[in-house]
């Protein structure tokens, strides 16, 4: 009589663990909530347009905004891209219900919903709408939720400002294509405002949102002066943690057309604060209460959330240290007085601005003055002291409009002055670098634990698409020496560490470890030999299983167990029940908290079920030490003497369970 064991149990271990992952995903979906559309709503055909992926309150969120032709209940449907089969979303896809209202700047309706509980390092696909009226599926990916990352900053696409919307669109699309191709792992697309020329021109908004990248990378939207005067900006961009109280709105427009607000979010090691700099003077008394309100808002956010990040980056539209047409605007000079000392006191590291359609990078500015008079123009490394802030103005990302750099005047180097730099009299006193070539560009910011690395990068040359140049503006770029992807300016901003030394260590996610088992040595036949007759009433055979090696390196120290059961013993068409096999488990080599299972008697002894039902070989409780163990068992087979002569075999199936 013979007995064989099976290695199929290792497959069962894997299947059991996979089932646990699936159950986890389903549990998340239930927690997040999903609502099936009613039959009437699902049947109503709805056209979806203007889908844009926005940033959420943190790395685990995204906000999606879109337009809808009908006022129906809609949602976002989300699933890991790996689970999309032949374009079909799985039954386990998670749904996020949308809210919205009727559009005021055009026909139709707007909707938005927040995706939450995203996992890091995961590719996702999503679609919006409802059953029967889905948008196409779009995709994005998350990366590590801790540590270094890059984001891209874009100045004033201002679609339509050249007088040729489609030409402007082409330049904007090309910049995003170039920027994301060169930086595929960039995690945010940050806007400097002025997305369109005319706030409520939906054709211009359609061109602005034409690039596919705006559905693949989260957009950090900023409202510019050309984006106010209507609700389209808000209808297309729903932003996190937004305060739309009166002081943060554009105060020069009727209540029904105000857009914007101030908002903030934390993304990894950066606290971003985005303000509506259009809200400046109160229309009631002409005071600068708007600026004061922004300062109060920024102060409150920094006090509450500044400790959550290593860097503080402020974004708004109106550039207060820029080199071109808006450099001498009275409102920007006033903002210098209203903002700069507060920003220094609050420890703002960098300010990103648009508006002036030219590139500049300031010296380290403290309280409205150059912090270190000895800082050299164009320095590749800058070491701001406490209160030092770097101000950056981005050039046009679309090529729709460029402003030429102005010469310094005699107004000096005071807080409102636009006088020359003593170290380079051709520039304003506050700018380390100024540039205007009439070519498209974008700003890349690398966020590192010990520095911010900033580069202004050419995304075009004098050649098309470059609307302003195509319409007759001169161009000084030389493609051979300054091709697409070449660097206009590059600087590393080093943090101030006080009188001591900062010590940093990056701690990765701990290896999760794993649980597994193998059969020790050669998995040969367990041969019980020839059964011996006992007392003229039964046959008995004894042996040992091939030992089982268990290893558990998981940090969770979760419980585990190994069990087994045996099928019928068969020889051709002859068989007898596996219940006649019993065993006595033991631990050969201790470790991993292993304890032997209870003995199981042959059913010949106790009329039970023996090993025909699953019985424990060994197990460990929650909190056991990591390590390995070797498990064994003595086998005891007792069968009635009525069993017909033969060479019988059975399969012992081993199952491992772990939570």
Q: Would you tell me the overall average pLDDT?
A: 89
Largest sheet: 7 strands, mixed
Supply Rg: 34 Å
Distance between the termini: 38 Å
**Uncertain residue ranges:** 1-43
Which bin fits the share of residues in helices? 10-25%
Counting helices, strands and paired strands, the structural category is alpha+beta
Give the strand order of the largest sheet, numbering strands 1, 2, ... along the chain.
Answer: 12-11-10-25-26-27-20
Give the overall shape. Answer: elongated
SS strand fraction: 25-35%
Plain-language structure description:
With 659 residues, this protein is α+β, with helices and mostly antiparallel strands. The chain is 15% helix and 31% strand. It has a seven-stranded mixed sheet with strand order 12-11-10-25-26-27-20, with no helix packed on it. The protein has a seven-stranded mixed sheet with strand order 13-14-15-16-21-17-24, covered by helices on one side. Strands 28, 29, 30, 31, 35 and 38 form a six-stranded antiparallel sheet that branches. Helix 7 links the parallel strand 15 (311-318) and strand 16 (350-354). The protein starts with a strand and ends with a strand.
